[in-house]
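Standup notes
- DV: blocked on the single-chain target, sequence here:
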Amino acid sequence: MLKEFKDFVSRGNMLDLAIGVVIGAAFGKVTEGFMNFIVNPLIGLIGGTDLSDKFVVIGGRSIPEVMAANTLEEVKQAGGSALGYGAFISSSVNFLIVAFVMFLFIKAYNKFKHGEAEAVLAAPPDVAVLIEIRDILASK
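- DV (later): unblocked, structure below
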């Protein structure tokens, strides 16, 4: 059983997956920084406020501190609840950026692999002629 586990873990696919997870986590941090320090401030410049701080109070309306809160953290500290739609929009844009970059990466990888497959599958000219003759004879 230990040998089977060792074989499973040392497979190339498992190692590729582990590397992909680590790179994905690092890329997620880069994208999060891009959103927090570039995109959100630009949206704030246009809209006059940081998008990640947009929220709607949905609970605790009778508590004056909740209604006077200016940030999600203040709402939570006052015992209220709020829908943080701005943070959700930021997370959604973050996801779209990561998904698009992954799409580009997979597309480039598939193009590279497809080129390798064509090079491997290309038959020498004499074999190609023999295959063509075989196909003609088989069709008759």
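- Follow-up: The chain has a mean pLDDT of 78.
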